[in-house]
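Researcher: Here's my situation. A collaborator sent me these components and asked whether they could plausibly form a single complex. I don't have experimental data yet, so a predicted model of the whole assembly would be a useful starting point for our discussion.
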Amino acid sequence: MTTDSTEERVLAAVRERRERVNAAIDEDLPLVAPERLWEASRYLLKAGGKRLRPTVSLLTAEAIADVPPLSVDYRQFPALDGGEVDVMAGALSLEVIQSFTLIHDDIMDDDALRRGVPAVHKAYDVDTAILAGDTLYSTAFEMMADTGAAPENGLEAMRMLAETCTRICEGQALDVEFERRRDVLPDEYLEMVESKTAVLYGDAAATPAVLLDADDAVVDALYAYGINSGSAFQIQDDVLDLTVPSAKLGKQRGSDLVGNKETLITLHARQQGVDVDGLVDADDAESLTDADVEDAVATLNEVGSIEYAREKAYSLVDESKRNLEALPDNEARSLLAAIAEYLISRGY
Amino acid sequence: MTTDSTEERVLAAVRERRERVNAAIDEDLPLVAPERLWEASRYLLKAGGKRLRPTVSLLTAEAIADVPPLSVDYRQFPALDGGEVDVMAGALSLEVIQSFTLIHDDIMDDDALRRGVPAVHKAYDVDTAILAGDTLYSTAFEMMADTGAAPENGLEAMRMLAETCTRICEGQALDVEFERRRDVLPDEYLEMVESKTAVLYGDAAATPAVLLDADDAVVDALYAYGINSGSAFQIQDDVLDLTVPSAKLGKQRGSDLVGNKETLITLHARQQGVDVDGLVDADDAESLTDADVEDAVATLNEVGSIEYAREKAYSLVDESKRNLEALPDNEARSLLAAIAEYLISRGY
């Protein structure tokens, strides 16, 4: 489905905007007193990241305004109501929220590494990491309050941001709850994925539409684009874990099969009567062998579970591309479609 | 300074509004799925609390609108621009933020009890407490987005709320930083107290003014009222720790002298050349005796440190009452003045 040129186009679009996003981080999140707090708050944002969500946001603004990519200053972007909007601040707000959730998630999961550097609660300490996350949380709302959009649009963007954050928390809670349950339905899993991962893509895509005064139908379509492509990304991630060789994955293939992690694949297999808990004997990813995984994959293929998940991811991407038809047909829209395809072609 | 009738009036005002605030919590924060998350998020709010900040907010609305206390539905409150505003949602938003900060602070300080019940991270676990705090954080912004105020006023209230939260985080970081430093200046301490404690009072008082479309001068004066009275409360708390008998305090008198906690009193004493670290020998509050405290208090009185802090608290309350002159002269305003006095007459 994805061609090399799709990937190249997406990576170029991300790269071309990354410098501007990084510069905006330094402008809008300066290192001020109390320095240790702000240093810890900026730490993960400064450690890197593809800036995929801000790229989606910035491309959406360009698609709505129907301007050539990178032709207009993101800080003074022409709104449809004649005003000027800092769409970069809106895009950055979502990246800052993403950073806050990663910092708190890493505490909860006790993950030691993130983006190749120690997690904030390891580089500093748990207390500082909690507080750094809390600081980013409100900073994101401060950014969204200062886009210069018409007040009703600015307020709506703030409301959407707040709802998005609440849903992310609910998604995280569902994820934890599902580890304890063995009767999760595929639809419940999709709801969890939507809350935990996809709403932030939905908000990243819809926020510029709100700020720039686009019609409600455009706002809704872009939100759906983000939800559909974000959900597809997460589902395909589960497929790739089972189908891509370990060397290419950068981790043991099939590691999701160890422990109590449910995926759309295992949930489907359970419904087909597969003894999912007995698929592999290994208790940790280290003792898992490729032969174990081959056997498990064969069983999952027999009942069509991997194909079920793959088809779900591809149909969600198709749906997300149809959502984009609410936008003018232009280069930025074409790049947004490419991003949706790219999201299911890679495992990052 | 405070008479019994002041205290009675304040307690009556708080009591008369508490039922409505508690009912609003159930309306605006219902126990929905995922239930464990929302149960943990509501836990501390449902455990009680005086509802002092919401009371300040609701009284401010009544003072601005110049209506008799409790005569108008807080959910449909008349704004000066002719609209109707849910000032209860605004008041509750601040209470929800307060609850989030307590949940995360209790994790950081590893405090086991809060409001007579186990802290959320003890009643549940640390991960759930982090997530419950995060959930309340965005819920507060959702509430503030839905007051029905004119969009420019709603947006401004959201911006103020975000700034308030960032300052609370900064105040918490300064508090931690100051425990490691021995060269903190009294003005730095006042800045910390303002950020950590007083801005939430400032926001509670100013939010209704913003939502109801009051003049900027009224907004600023009410914010100052909250900052001044909130700071006075915290400073007086330090005075009471040294001057009120243990039995009445409900904890060992002078317990602030143990450990590395700085107060305006100890910082002033340091400036006068007192060996603050040698004031008491005890290493914990349990081994502290009243005789130790008497000696320490005598030393602090000699250099005027306790009187310095007490005068600072009283002058801040006087200032906060002058701030109220921006409001019409009515019963609600008189109750706000009484609350400022009450804040320094009690140690809660």
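Model: Some features of this prediction you could bring to your collaborator: The first helix of chain A runs from residue 4 to 28. Chain A has a mean pLDDT of 94.
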